[in-house]
Amino acid sequence: MAATTRRDLRTGRSLWADSPGLGVPVRPLARAVSVDVAVVGAGISGAFMAHGLSRDHSLAVLDRRPPLMGSTIASTALLQWEVDLPLIELTRRIGQTDAVRAYRRSFRAVADLQRIVADQKIVCGLKPKQSLYLAGDAYGRRALETEAEARRAAGLPSDFLAGAELKGRFGLDRTGGVLSDGSATGDPARLAAGLLRRAAARGARVYSPVEALEALVDPDGVTLLTDVGTVIRARHVVFCCGYEFPRGVPTPGARIVSTWAMASRPRRRIPAWLRQMLVWEASDPYLYIRMSRDGRLIVGGEDEASATAHEDPAKLRRKCRTLEAKLKALLPDVYFDVDYAWAGAFGESDTGLPQIGPIDDSGRVHAVMGFGGNGITYSVIASQVIGAAIRGAADPDADLYRA
Ligand SMILES: Cc1cc2nc3c(=O)[nH]c(=O)nc-3n(C[C@H](O)[C@H](O)[C@H](O)COP(=O)(O)OP(=O)(O)OC[C@H]3O[C@@H](n4cnc5c(N)ncnc54)[C@H](O)[C@@H]3O)c2cc1C
């Protein structure tokens, strides 16, 4: 029975806002500082960037809000290597060689993320999961069968499951699906906080609230002007501003969309298989489902092509009803009592790939922008690609993410 109760519903508040362990030491920017790298944005992208760079560079991280309060706190954190566009469709758009490279790089990034969390002993509810991609109105049974073949040919761990197998193993009424290894889920806010604290322990300083206004490049470096009147002088500046694109930065093909999510109360009775798996649909708009470590069901999707729709409380209630109805249609025996419901903005691009790289000829100002639904995977890739550029090395896949 997918009945729903709304007692004490925390409307507009993300589940992770109540996570423990979100503290990050911050300070005001009281006087001018000089560092190797200034990172603008203390979300998950800025956190991976700071963590990766802090080993060899002096760092200032600045945010106009407290850390983590951009889209990171709203993320449902399905940590996937599957790009928003299936491999067969990405191949049509950018060619087979690059599409396979993009998929393999994402696969590696999710593995790297899990390794970093384990090495650094970051407590963030990280759990390796399988991913089940269900046939829907955008890609049906035949397309998904071809998709699974293309992925296997690329060396990726995906298998096609026919409708009868989906019914028999999971009780799901769909014509087909692709089951893949190598994904994970976690708490994105605790992950980002843990990375920022590790960077701070190596000497990185987090300044908040400080807004970056402009980056002025000269032959010796960059001067970052801020709203508090003091400046940061750096050899390199990296904008990790999520979906609040820095002024003057070109964003060809990137669009801001709104998306919705909700979480049940903890310790719900859920089919055992769903604890090991994240589920998403090849539909537009789509539904996705994952479990949290404390037994909550997290459900999201219903994306809309609007940068502001996520701010509308009435729409949040309507979207929750739609998500509940879709969940009930997919899993009629699961009881979902909504505890948290929230919404946020994220970015889409024509290829599902982000833009990562230098944004001017100096090579000193970099940006991380235009993420798709698996933005956190791209935060890892961005830290690797830009980290290499700052060290003066070349990342073999950097060209994939150039605008
Ligand atoms: C509801 C929802 C569900 C999602 N689900 C998933 C998912 O399942 N899997 C996944 O991988 N991704 C998901 N995403 C996307 C993912 O959350 C984002 O890709 C990720 O959080 C982006 O992190 P970020 O650090 O780049 O941006 P943010 O977290 O937005 O951080 C950017 C920071 O920059 C600061 N800032 C901006 N401009 C300035 C400035 N001029 N000066 C100073 N500071 C500035 C902001 O205050 C902010 O703190 C989801 C997003 C939403 C909203």
How would you characterize the overall build of this protein?
By secondary structure, the chain is of the alpha/beta class. The protein has a domain at 20-74 and 190-252 and 352-401: FAD/NAD(P)-binding domain (3-Layer(bba) Sandwich), CATH 3.50.50. Helices cover 29% and strands 28% of the residues. The chain contains nine helices and 18 strands. The chain has helices at 44-53, 87-94, 96-120, 141-153, 163-170, 188-201, 272-275, 313-330, 375-391, and strands spanning 10-11, 33-40, 59-62, 78-79, 127-134, 158-162, 176-185, 205-207, 212-218, 221-226, 231-239, 255-264, 277-281, 287-291, 297-304, 338-348, 355-358, 365-369. Strands 1, 4, 5, 6, 7, 12, 13, 14, 15 and 16 form a ten-stranded mixed sheet that branches. Strands 2, 3, 8, 9, 10, 11, 17 and 18 form an eight-stranded mixed sheet that branches. The longest helix is centred in the first third of the chain and has 25 residues, at 96-120. The termini are far apart. Residues 1-8 have low confidence and may be disordered. Flavin-adenine dinucleotide (FAD) binds next to helix 1, strand 12, strand 16 and helix 9.
List the helices and strands and how they pair.
Elements: E1 10-11, E2 33-40, H1 44-53, E3 59-62, E4 78-79, H2 87-94, H3 96-120, E5 127-134, H4 141-153, E6 158-162, H5 163-170, E7 176-185, H6 188-201, E8 205-207, E9 212-218, E10 221-226, E11 231-239, E12 255-264, H7 272-275, E13 277-281, E14 287-291, E15 297-304, H8 313-330, E16 338-348, E17 355-358, E18 365-369, H9 375-391
Parallel strand pairs: 1-16, 2-3, 2-11, 3-8, 5-13, 11-18
Antiparallel strand pairs: 4-7, 5-7, 6-7, 9-10, 10-11, 12-15, 12-16, 13-14, 14-15, 17-18
Helix pairs in contact: 1-6, 1-9, 2-3, 3-9
This protein binds flavin-adenine dinucleotide.
